[in-house]
Amino acid sequence: MRPVPVPARLLIAVTALGGAACVLPVVHTPGIRWGAVALLAALYAMCEWLTRCPFLGERAPRSMGAFFPVLLAAIFLLPAQAAALAAVPGALLGRVDQRPVAPRRIWRGGQLALACWTAGQTHHALGGRASLGAGGAPDFPYALLPAAAAAAAFCLVMAVLDGVILAAVGGPGRRLATFARGAGGGFAGSLAPTLVHGLAGLMMAVLWVSPYGPFAALLVLLPMYISYWVFEQYHRERTAHQATIRALVQAVDIKDEYTRGHSERVGKASVLIARELGMPDDRVEVLRFAGILHDVGKLGVPTRLLRKDGPLTPEERRIIELHPEYGHEMVRGIGFLGEARTAILHHHERLDGSGYPYGLVGRQIPEFARVVAVADAFDAMTSTRSYRRARPVEQALAELKRCAGKQFDPQMVRALVRALDRHGWHPTVTADEPAPPRLPLQEEQLSRPTATGKAP
Amino acid sequence: MTRRAAASPVIVAAAGAAGGLTLYALGHTLWYGLEERGIALAFGILIAVGELARWGGRGAPGAVAREPAPLGAAGALAYALLGESGGAPTHHGVLQIIAVVAAATLAGAVPHVALGRGPSLDHLIRRILTVSFAAVCFQPLYNSGELQELVGLGPWYALWLVAVLVFTALCDAVLSAVLTRARTHWPYGPLLRDELRALVGIGSAVGATGAVMSLAVAVAGLWALPVFSAPLLLTQLAFRRYAAVRTTYRQTITSLARATEIAGYTPSGHARRVAALSCAVGRDLGLSEADLTVLEYAALMHDIGQLSLVDPIPAGATALLPPADQRRIALLGGAVVRQTGVPSDVAVVVERQADPYRDQPLTARIVRTANAYDELSRSAGPSGMLTALERLRLGTAHDYHPEVVESLSRVVGRGV
């Protein structure tokens, strides 16, 4: 656990004091409906507490920390000081994943109190409370304006404070850049969700002051809660999916153990080339998978051949050269891989047509396959194999340049050279890293089935 | 199979009721004209848009298959339960509600039908019948003014709406289970249980949104519709992404399972057939949906341990190996499956697939029996089905669970 840096401590103290200054005047404010404050505070605290509820265990949602519709409803319904007060118990109770816990809770309490207070003042300044129509009809569409302004103000304060604390925790240099990145990114990323939450909060507030009362307002929370819960499931399922892809790759790596980490590194090199070519993010992501999975067909090649030391007979070579087709056959059903599937099939094609499996020439070879071919060759040369030591990066690049035009696409080779100039090559999966958990895919000798009547 | 199901009296009766009701309602509404056209139009547009934004095909998993157009469903329920609008009472009756909902749903479905992925018949039947039910529970009471005398226009009114919605949702669950039962002959109890369980998820979101919309329109007028549609679209987006990742995940697992086929360890299509058969048997035995997912993943990956073998077993048929070897492959497979991030239940099924049935969980019994059936029936030639079933029955003393074998013979007899 790192000690909290001094600037961060100061900042936390200042924010907490600021939050307290926002909340404390509530004592002298006349006409506060304490019942509503207590109900909203309890509701928000319950939402936050659910994230670490011991009874739900593994099924407890994680990301409820951003459960803002309740807070926004409080901002619309209550005076600014009371709204800030309603946020505090929940903020102090919420789930904190990283240590140290206490400063983070205090920070969050102060941050939310300040944000709620600012948003509440914005809302009241624009005449928001009158537009909710207590006792009469709400003033739509005007009511949307103060609500949207308040949601934006809330979002802005949260993002700015996030940026400040990031800059305070980070190192002494480049504080301004850290601040700008944290605040700007935070604001851009959370504005749209906060506005949608603002709509839900507005609906809650309108129903709350209507004759139907708080019970009707609580109904608004149900669909919101469920969408959080589903997003949670989504993330869980996605993690599981990534683990499955990793299992596929590990299975190959362990079958062919000299090339451990090769797949991941080819994925990385492919991404470097793709970014240099200016591909959009979704294609880069698919290309990463193409690089990672390019050798998945080796699962179909007998382990004996993959590990053979010494020269291969033509027959053995022919069997190994089937692996792109095996791989393509395996991943054919995975819809999201899209173009990556063609890369898996064609990553051993050469520009002059002497490659396999189809001997395609030049532009006939799909773009992804041309990228993966360069990345594959580059990593093969720069990593240690059983029969030779790793070559230095410069030598490998020279070799690639020599073969550009005949074997490799010169455009891809140039892109790799430029990318390495800019970022360097830091393969993370190397021999000094602890071995990954082993899959039991080593050769296992099995007594021959008695049905065939043969001894092992 | 489908032809026989389409002729099932239950479905004919339900479709007849829904269709007749719709025609009568449309005719009545056309003859007497619409009350409060603006409101009818606004809700009609909302329902049609919700229907347009429907997701997934018919083969989609879980919640998506159950409620493919949540926004449309919520809009329809809100219209059925609409009392006031912007503080002024409305007068539309049950028949107008049915006519508007049916017309809007069909209008929104037109582009989907053109693309060949229109709503299923069950979906339409359920939409019409549940909306009619909710409207019959609410509108006559409201329009006659009795409801106002009974509960007033305060919190009790909101509570009454929620009660009607809960009741409607229960009826919808029963109807849905009956329709699925008529189509597939799966046992009724587990179907109903799965439907009721799903009410907690998407069902309650749709119901709550319907209630909120009708109350919000009562307070704020039609402005409430776009304002509250945005949060529900968020819910819809969440469900859609969840469904997408589920589909991808399943595809990846299927690919991993195909590795053994491509490596020549098992005959092609074996894993897929065993998975389909296991799921059919699981349904027949009344497993829950969560268990069925575990069963499917485990059945797909049950042979993955064979990747560790140097030499393939002839035809990949593990059922004929000595028990000790079967168990060893099973353990190796379990270890691979544990790395894949699937729930650990799946790994347990794969590990225990070769144990005697008395030591196995039910899911592992099913995988073992389905696997043996697929291997035996293929190795025995044209009369393979009967030979395989006979050999399975002979093995019920120790290896195969008698009930699972009987269920399997029922499933196979039905022609899955």
UniProtKB/TrEMBL annotation, chain A:
The keyword Transmembrane applies. Residues 259-381 form the HD domain. Residues 237-432 form the HD-GYP domain. The lineage of its organism: Bacteria, Bacillati, Actinomycetota, Actinomycetes, Kitasatosporales. It comes from Streptomyces indicus. The keyword Transport does not apply. This is HDIG domain-containing protein. Residues 427-456 are annotated as: Disordered. Keywords: Membrane, Transmembrane, Transmembrane helix. It comes from the Bacteria. InterPro entries: Cyclic_di-GMP/3'3'-cGAMP_PDE, HD/PDEase_dom, HD_domain, HD_GYP_dom, HDIG_dom. The chain crosses the membrane at residues 32-51, 63-88, 147-170, 182-206, 212-231. It holds the Pfam family HD_5.
TrEMBL record, chain B:
InterPro entries: Cyclic_di-GMP/3'3'-cGAMP_PDE, HD/PDEase_dom, HD_domain. The chain crosses the membrane at residues 7-26, 38-57, 94-115, 124-142, 157-179, 199-225. This is HD domain-containing protein. The lineage of its organism: Bacteria, Bacillati, Actinomycetota, Actinomycetes, Kitasatosporales. It comes from the Bacteria. Residues 269-374 form the HD domain. Keywords: Membrane, Transmembrane, Transmembrane helix. The keyword Transmembrane helix applies.
